[in-house]
Amino acid sequence: MASQQPSGSALPAAAAAAPATAPRRQPPPAKQQQQQHQGKRRHRSPPPAAADVDAAAAAVTEAEIEEILAKSSRRKGKEAPSDPDVREAIRRRIAESRAKRATRISFVCPACSVTLTRAVTLVTHSDRCCPDILSSREIKKATDAADHAALERILARAAANEQRLRRRALEICFLDGGRTTAFGDASGDEDGGGGGGGGAGGSGAGGSAAGTLDEDEEDAAASAAAAERAASEAAAFRAFLQAAQAAAASVEAEAAAADAAAAEAAAAAAAGDDGGGPAAPQRRPPPPAATQALGSKRQRILEAPVDIARELGVSVDRAQRLLHRAMRSIPLAQDKEDPVHVVYEDEHFVAVLKPPNVHSAPTHRWRGGSMVNRLLAHMGGRPPYLMHRLDVDTSGLLLFGKVPEVVPGVMAQFRDRKVAKEYLAITIGVPRPADGGAEFLVDAPVDRHPSVDTARRVGPAGKPASTAFRVEAANGDAALGADAGAAAGQLWHERGRPLGGAEEAAAGGGAAAAGGAEAGAQARAPAGAPRGAALVRCFPKTGRTHQIRLHLAHAGHPIIADAVYGLTGPWMPRQALHAHALTVTNPLTGQRLRMVAPLPQDFRDALDALGLAAPLDAL
């Protein structure tokens, strides 16, 4: 009988035949990749000096240590340790981090403002970004010698050249001839620029008196010369902007005069025609030379990089970046003399009443005259964040953010249609919905007009748009015809179907029968206007261009004084549309805010002239 081995020493047969050493377990894929790239780790900077760490440790407060211990205990679910050695280790870690950060050197590219933390990357970056102002050979030489002071001098010289190139790009883009006399006198030679003047000034200030001035006096004289050169450069740039603005004003005045003459000629040619009023005069394109005068000429800005590249000997891509960064570097004008009517303000928002005929945003950075320029002065130079826009002829509430943190949240509310908007409009004729009530809905897509660039029309290929309306006040006896001084707008003949049912449409005969008292034949006539006027509250659900104006015209009741879709006349000098109220949620506090802008005087005068009462919340 075979003897049995003890159970503790029993081994399987396979194990007895196994090799003496078991195979090593393979590390996980992530660990394998890390081991493969061990030799590719970045070179770590040397640790800070002990004296710097000691000085930083003395500045670490007990409150900072307590905060770190509290965070650690919450994360681990344990009580914060009270061992003094642990507290001292935390203090040293904080001190080492601060000392290392204090000795860290960074380099800012003068062309694109990218911050680089390693000098060696400056070589490859300059070759890719701005080889015309940064020499990679000079940078590599200073980098190999670890001469950070030389790198700073190279970057300072490149920054000065970048500023000269940006000013030259502005000249080429916006000025006829590419240079103003004032700027040319101040800048000196083309390639010398401010540097040439600086050299002459330096030799004149310090060179002739070098034997009589001590070192401090020489430094003071050099500083004074540098300040004088800087002041001269600033004065030259201001002169350039003034000359550019004058050139733009001259070109715009000529264009306005040409438009007025064309409008008079068209009106005279269309006198006596009953085809819906004179067609809009075709705007004459400006002469080729005028496109080089400064102005909000988008086409010129698109074309200019080719000219800039040819003049400066750089690539078109580099010329485009030069021009755009030059324009962005120009500070926005502050309209300190123009009043600001604030209707609501807190630490996050400011809502103002935009007067009619004032732009929401500036047409150019160095031009004033917009609500942004007014708010810039109102906020003491701090940038206002425009949340939405209104047409230049539309008055009403305009919302600005005072801090950048509110911008994404409010923009998301506009995008998701969670902002409640209310407008007030005076319509031609009294809308009479088929159900006999005061409310009606227009759900019609908004598309571009095929022949009028600035107009829109209802078309199946347009973007979805929806607006709810409510009649607030009505006067069926208000006269709005030609005998009252009315003139047809540009697209008056395209106004849409009436609001009433089929019976009313048949009786009225078409487009404007919902006006009420007018006979069908007169209502169908393009030059005819339905009798009566109404004050309508508008609730746009979407935010398409000209949405309210177009939807009311599509309903057969355009806005009075609307030169595109309605009738112009003696009631108002601009379209009777007012952004009355806006309701948003403060994304930082969750508070729901409803802000209301009172009616301007011209709107109130029109209501009085037409026998309409203003709503109580608009007074």
How is this structure best described in words?
This protein is α+β, with helices and mostly antiparallel strands and 619 residues long. Among the domains are: 56-73 and 81-103; 417-575, Pseudouridine synthase. It contains 19 helices and 16 strands. It has helices at residues 13-16, 29-36, 50-58, 62-76, 84-103, 120-129, 136-144, 148-174, 181-187, 193-207, 215-269, 298-312, 316-329, 371-378, 407-415, 502-508, 520-524, 547-554, 601-609; strands at residues 107-108, 115-116, 342-345, 349-354, 385-386, 395-401, 420-428, 439-443, 446-448, 456-458, 466-475, 487-488, 533-540, 567-568, 577-585, 592-596. The strands form four sheets. Strands 3, 4, 5, 6, 7, 8, 11, 13, 15 and 16 form a ten-stranded mixed beta sheet that branches. A two-stranded antiparallel sheet has the order 1-2. A two-stranded antiparallel ribbon has the order 9-10. The longest helix is centred in the middle third of the chain and has 55 residues, at 215-269. The relative contact order is 0.07.
Instruction: Return the structural class.
Output: alpha+beta
What is the CATH architecture descriptor of the domain at 417-575?
2-Layer Sandwich
Count of alpha and pi helical runs: 19
What is the name of the CATH class of the domain at 417-575? Alpha Beta
